[in-house]
Amino acid sequence: MSVPPVPAGSEVVIGTDGLPRTPWGDSSELMRHYYDTEWGLPVRDEQGLFERLSLEAFQSGLSWATILRKRPAFRQAFAGFDPDAVAAFGPADVEHLMGDAGIVRNRRKIEATIQNARATVALREDGGLAELVWSYRPEATPSPRTVEEVPTTSAESVALARELKRRGFAFVGPTTCFALMEAVGIVDTHLVGSHRRGTSGVWPG
After folding, report:
1. pLDDT value at residue 2
2. Which of 9, 59, 112, 174 pairs as cysteine with 170 (C-beta 3.0–4.6 A)?
């Protein structure tokens, strides 16, 4: 996800509820709810990972808040991100989606989502999407104390992007893959001192 701009060197901020968070996690009620209840918690099922990967791709060039606001519409438009259902979409479905004002109407991203659904289904013959994505978990997670210390890529995200492309996925560059890894708990980039750091159970606080 692309985080809202904050001053370089920003450390955790204390919310009105007294809890310390990474600055973007306290930037609005929408972002606070997402930060507190979902971001960084492990997602290990195929459909959940396909949804997160799809939304990260749609977010490219946009704010994450925009994607979160449109998430219910995305889920309706893409059959709850059921890979089998989306894999069956054809040209008529693409045109229908291009007319759906509730989502991001970007033809390349819509077509990439359908392509990625088909690639996800194909991956089942070789362990599946969740097994592949989680196999790129690093030996250690970053421990950023300021926003500027949070990385946007890693050796693992570069490698994951390369493998996903080899497997037929689109819109899966190293930055998108790192954002996915953050979102689903593969790495923990909550700032040190945030009340959310270490809560995934994947990494210590």
Report:
1. 46
2. 112
